[in-house]
Specification:
Length: 126
């Protein structure tokens, strides 16, 4: 099962929900986080930047190869990145933001893949 973390309650349609990294960044930029939370979030972002390849979303969007519906999913064996995502979920929940994990056996047409993740072009709910 592929794994994705999204912002939204269980009764909200996952097709319309965004990822937790952007939401945490919005909280940080709005000055809503406590200092220790901001430090923890920055440490998580630093770890991701050092250890997780960044899919080339911008270049692909400009060239028309991916649509805006393309989203990243973790592979089931991406243990450490998934654990760190749960740390972000905990920060969001402390601030009243509903966040959850969703899974899919077939997230869609895979247009990018690395050791830890895939980017799927066609959403799993289509």
């Amino acid at each position: 099962m592929f794994v994705r973390f999204i912002v939204g309650a269980d009764d909200e349609n996952a097709a319309w929900l965004t990822g937790i990294i952007a939401e945490a960044r919005l909280l940080r930029d709005a000055g809503e986080l406590y200092d220790f939370e901001e430090e923890r979030l920055e440490a998580i972002y630093d770890w991701f930047n050092e250890h997780l390849p960044c899919p080339p979303f911008r270049g692909k969007l400009r060239s028309g190869e991916w649509t805006r519906d393309a989203v990243a999913w973790f592979k089931p064996d991406a243990g450490e990145p998934i654990r760190r995502m749960w740390d972000i979920v905990a920060i969001l929940r402390e601030h009243g933001v509903a966040a959850r994990m969703i899974t899919a056996e077939k997230p869609g047409k895979i247009v990018y893949e690395d050791t830890y993740q895939v980017v799927a072009e066609t959403p799993y709910w289509a």
